[in-house]
Design brief:
two-stranded antiparallel ribbon, alpha+beta
Length: 218
């Protein structure tokens, strides 16, 4: 009896509720951190891809218009009529599709793709850039025609600038009358061309500017 009463009984101790809850919180915080880091990487990778695509699409317009004159070689740019008004700026009569454009001012305020006046985006040959699946398959519509690259647009802005200050924008009909200096007629000003490339994803409320390309036509 004495020996039996002197035995010590040891019980296996398990996790308490507080310890279990604390372990769950620690693991949860770690999982959230990993997921957030992965999401940040995906966003960064997606934006990098978009920035590259935006630069490419901006340069496509620049290549398309590389040899274009500032204004139409036939109708030109002038101030005429009664009352006098600027004539020849923008698209001319009969210029409906991109292949009709033959001078730089034709492109002013023209947007290709995603809600613009003309389909697009377009490449340096004026062709629509198609939607391509990851496996290289071109997406076609019901008539077998390639679908434009979804969500992308190229918006072109053409502005006159001073010959002596290429950062100073002037009105389309601006002239410098002859005087003590040298006069500049309405059609002799350099042009600053800006191509704004935007993208609107399926869940974006409005387009977001991805890139812009700017150059001067002397």
């Amino acid at each position: 009896m004495r020996g039996r009463s002197g035995l010590r009984v040891r019980h296996n101790r398990g996790f308490t509720l507080i310890e279990t809850a604390l372990a769950t919180v620690i693991i949860g915080v770690g999982v959230v951190a990993v997921v957030e880091a992965q999401q940040a990487f995906l966003r960064s990778n997606r934006w990098s891809s978009h920035a590259s695509s935006g630069t490419l699409m901006g340069n496509e317009i620049r290549e398309l218009t590389r040899d274009f004159p500032r204004h139409d070689s036939v109708s030109g740019l002038m101030i005429g009529g009664d009352p006098p008004a600027l004539q020849g700026w923008g698209t001319d009569l009969g210029e409906i599709v991109v292949w009709d454009f033959d001078d730089m001012d034709d492109f002013d305020e023209i947007q290709f793709g995603n809600g613009g006046q003309l389909p697009g985006p377009i490449d340096a040959f004026g062709n629509i850039i198609p939607q391509i699946l990851p496996d290289g398959t071109v997406v076609l519509d019901g008539n077998g025609n390639p679908l434009p690259l979804e969500g992308w647009s190229q918006r072109v802005v053409v502005q006159k600038v001073l010959p002596t200050n290429l950062t100073q924008i002037v009105a389309d009909g601006h002239v410098i009358l002859p005087g003590p200096g040298v006069g500049v007629p309405v059609d002799a000003f350099p042009l600053r061309v800006t191509v704004i490339v935007e993208y609107q994803g399926p869940y974006d409320p409005q387009p977001v500017e991805v890139n812009r390309i700017v150059w001067i036509v002397p």
